[in-house]
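In this supplementary section we document a worked example of the pipeline. Step one takes a protein sequence of length 337 as its only input; no multiple sequence alignment statistics are reported here. Step two produces a three-dimensional model, which step three serialises into structure tokens for compact storage. The input and output of this example are shown verbatim.
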Amino acid sequence: MPAISRLALLVLAAASVQAQSVLEGIELFEQGRYTAAEAALEGLPDKRARAFVALARAATGRCGQAAGGLQAAFDEKSDRQVMRLAGLALARCRIAEKSFAGALSLLNLLASEFPDDGDVLYEIARLHLKAWNDAVERMFDKAPASFRVNQLSAEIFEIRGRFSEAVAEYRRAVEKNPRAINLHYRLGRALLMESHAPEALAAARREFEAELRLNPNDSVAEYQIARILEVEGEHEAARERLENAVRLDPDFSEALTALGRALSAQKSWPRAVELLERAVELAPQSESAHYNLMLAYRNAGRESEALAVKKRLDEMQRSPEGEFTDFLRRIGELPQQ
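The serialised model returned by step three reads:
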């Protein structure tokens, strides 16, 4: 056999051994044996080997040693899976370093390449949460007397269902800055979540009115006042407020549904149907919108359309997709099964 052929065979054999070593090292990495993977892959003249050495270092908390290899693997882009892993590892390292802008830029690039990837979306969510937590910590440390501290405390109490404490914190925030947009609205909403007693309804309405004096274009405040007026039996005044809410925001599905229901009560079927059709279009999973549209169709004599909406409503009630099914039954807007 000529010398050149023997040399070629040796080269091929060496390449085969190297390729096998790379595969074994990657398998160790995928098993979570990062130290062993790094030892198996280090020094191999292979791009994937270098990438997984960097990934193993990042996985064991050595971002400083890994950064160059991760960036090179991410920039290479010839192997999309390696690029994805390198980008995720590099983003985690930047989050750990509190380099949030750099991490966000990198994750946005990954999201453009892998828009439905659960790991990419998780890291984006984690980044925003981490940045939020750090900003909150700085705010409490650097500006403890700010009304924003009270506002944020109130929002946290709301999330925890501690509405009395939320109301107290919102009131402190309003005392410090009575002209801040959205504070009066948030206070009014917290009052309603705390209680539906007559005095709570009156206090909440005062806050929504205060919000509208600051921001006359607040359709949600108009809607909340309308719902309070409905509870108080002031149906014509409530309808006028709902008209305002829909005028301010023609795509406000809850206001469209409430106004459609109010017009149905006045037997104004054509406009009620028009508004409720729009509400269903905007909120296709809203049981309330479907139920009120079904009633409006039926009362307008449009039986076939009412039956079609009823069929869809029945499907929603059998599925977890429909919103507020149990709640609507409890308050009587849907029949008990």
